[in-house]
Amino acid sequence: MRPDQWVADDYADGMAVTPPGGALPPPPTAPAVPPGSPTPRMPLRRLGWRRFLALAGVVLLIAAGAVFMVFTLGESLGAEALLVGVIAAILPVPVLVSCFLWLDRYEPEPLKYLIFCFAWGAFVSTAISLLVNETGARLFDNLGLPAALTAVLVAPFIEELTKAAGPILLLIFRRREFSGVTDGLVYCGLSAVGFAMVENILYLGGYGYRTGVEEYGPATGARQVIAIFIVRILLFGFAHPLFTSMTGVGLGVAARTADRRVRFLAPIAGLLVAMMLHGTWNLLPSLAAATGQPLIALYGYLGVMVPIFFGMVGLAIWLRAWEGRLTERTLPDYVRAGWLTPPEVAALGSLGRRHAARTWARRVAGDGGVKAMRGYQFAATRLALLRDGMRRGLDRKPAERDRTAREERELLEAIGAYRAFFVGRDPQAPVGVWDGQRYHLRFPDGSRRAVEAPDEPVVPIPVVLAPPPAFPAGYGPQGWPGPRPAAPWHPHA
Fold first, then answer.
1. Which end of the chain is more exposed for a tag (fewer CB within 10 A), N or C?
2. pTM for this predicted structure
3. Using an 8 Å Cβ cutoff, are 141 and 82 in contact?
4. Which pLDDT tens digit goes with each residue over 55-84?
């Protein structure tokens, strides 16, 4: 944004230390939203023929991997063992997926990309890894080397590379869907969960149930399934997500930096760390078996892997909180320009405040108000991430800057449309205008008065004082399309 002026020592300065905002707009006028109007929503992207071909190619690739894995596992395990393995392997998946979705609550990623990453890890990564690992095992056998070397030297390389390939494709072709390290953790984590699910089918159905049935009968097979489930899933089910999360950190760093060297080196560094962790994990039981000292594996897991795991959990929780506070650091720029009010920004700062805002919206505008408030919160978070990216200089090319300007305009228009859906419906909320520095309120006797903002915004209710103003001249990057009045989105717009 290129501001014309800003108000020094104003109320927004007390909320966050930010660069100057835009020029103060004139008092806006807003179209009223009549009762029963459809809930606004963000505009949908058109599916051109190039996107259609790319989507078709991805679907076919994932489908081919799924068919290959079902045929391979079915042929090696048998129908009964395959069914037992599938049921047992699916049980922990909802819990693991929910953990990653919990991280992504401030700015949820599109469902199609989440499904893509999970399916990529489950079918494409497992299919390629299975072929490469079997080839490596045969090669080591022909050379007279132990087959255990495959788990240490081959599996970590190919498995981490293929698990990360799906999120890397998203970073290359959908970089705007990567808003930081949190998104990298979510995308890579879901890919790892999908991979672990299919791999667990092999262990639970093959090494567990089928082996037990062949030796002593179904009861032994069931006991072995339970034993493997406890050790492999309940105790060490975090292994694959932990390894691949290192790559996710690298991808997230690359997505939020303007330095080309960091963009290139960060994913490589994350991938190498993931491979080394994976290799160390596989090396520990091999050393314990070769030396006859099982404590080697126990000490390695407890002394190395468990601290790293809790360190990553702490990092993920901190990043989640950081993403929530991002709105309080960046959106005051729009408060100064009159697009947002201080209570609105304050009401976005935590999940508890956001929930309270949705409760308020339901009270004053029903179910449609809740939908509008959810859309408003999502658009505001996207706007904060976009503004943060502008500060970081992520867009180097003129076409990228123009696209950012258009996206900023669309988000501001969407915010205005969502706000207009429930503005004025709360009889307890005062009627007035926020000019970037103070409130101009209209009192019941008809008088108007400028009122200084309190030291702390009134939260959690987001008191919407006015719909968005017309776009001020000079507000936005070069190439800003110019003033456009805001209007509510319609469902089929």
1. C
2. 0.80
3. no
4. 788 889 999 999 999 999 988 888 899 999
